[in-house]
Amino acid sequence: MLKLKLTLWRHWQKLRRANYWLWAQAVFAVLALLRRLPAKSAIEFSAKAGRFIGPYTSRHRVAVANLRSAYPEKTTAEIEKIAGDMWDGMARLFAEYIFLDAVFDYDPNVTEPGLIEVQGTEIFERLRNEKKPHIFFTAHTGNFELLPICAATFGLNVTALFRPPNNPYIAQHVLQARRTNMGHLVPSKAGAAWSLAHVLGEDGNVGMLVDQKFRRGVPSTFFGRPVRTNPLLAKLARQFDCDVYPARCIRLAHGRYRLELNERMELPRDEKGQIDVNATAQLLNDTVEGWVREYPGQWMWFHKRWG
C-alpha cells in the first residue's frame, strides 16, 4: 500500500510539473509577442485583454465576493466596475514587467514631466544621507514594482522581500527580471527574516509588501473582517528600533504613475516603550485599507486575503 501511494504521489508530482511547464510556456509566448510591440501599445493591449478575459476566470468570483463583503452598500454594477478596473491594472502590470526601462523615465534633475511623478523627493534625499536602517512598506496597488527602482534613482538601495509565483518556471523568470531592475531580493520563505535582519544590522534598507495572506500571522482586521497579518515588519522594527515609511504607487490617467513616499509612521508602543507588534500589524492594515478605499480598482481583489 505504501509503495502504491509513493508511486501515485510521484506521478502526481510529474503531472503538476508538466502543467506548470505548459502554463509557463504559454506565458512566455505571450510575453514574446508583447515584446514585438512598442511599450505603450503592448501595455494598452494587455489592459484591454485583461478587462475581457478576467471576468471569465474563477478568480473573478473571488474578487466579486471580496468586493461585496468590503462594500455591502455598492450595487452589482459598481462592484463589476471595480473588478474590471482591477483586471485592467493587473494586465498592465503583467506587460510592464518587460518594459520597466521604458516605463520608468523619472529623472530628479529634469523638470519636464514624464510618465512618472514622485511625491516625497525630499524624504528620499534625506534618507539617502542617514546612516541607519529603514523599513519601507507598500501594498499591491498600482505598479508597486516601480518603488524600489525609484529609491535606487535617489541612491537608496532597498532589499525587497517578495513572494515568488507558485509556478517554479515563471518564478525563475520573474526573479531574473526583478533582479535586473530592482537590486537585491529576498524570496519569502524560510530564512527570509534572517536575511532582512542582516541587511538592517548593516544599516541597510528593507522593503516589504504587507497586504498578503499569512496563516501564522497575528489576529487583526481588514475592511472590518478578521485576517492574519505577518508580524515580521513590526518585529524587525522593534529589534532594530528603525523608522518605518509608507510608500505606494498610484496609476494616473494616460498611462502615467505617481509614486508617493510619506513621512515615517509613529508606531504604537507597549507599556515598556517597545513597539507593539499586534497594534502595529493593525496599523499597517488600516493604512493599506485607506489606500484601497481611495483607489479600489487598483488593488488585487482576487487575492484570498480573508481565506
TrEMBL record:
Signal peptide: none annotated. CDD domains: LPLAT_LABLAT-like. The keyword Hydrolase does not apply. It is found in: Cell inner membrane. InterPro entries: LipA_acyltrans (IPR004960). It holds the Pfam family Lip_A_acyltrans. This is KDO2-lipid IV(A) lauroyltransferase.
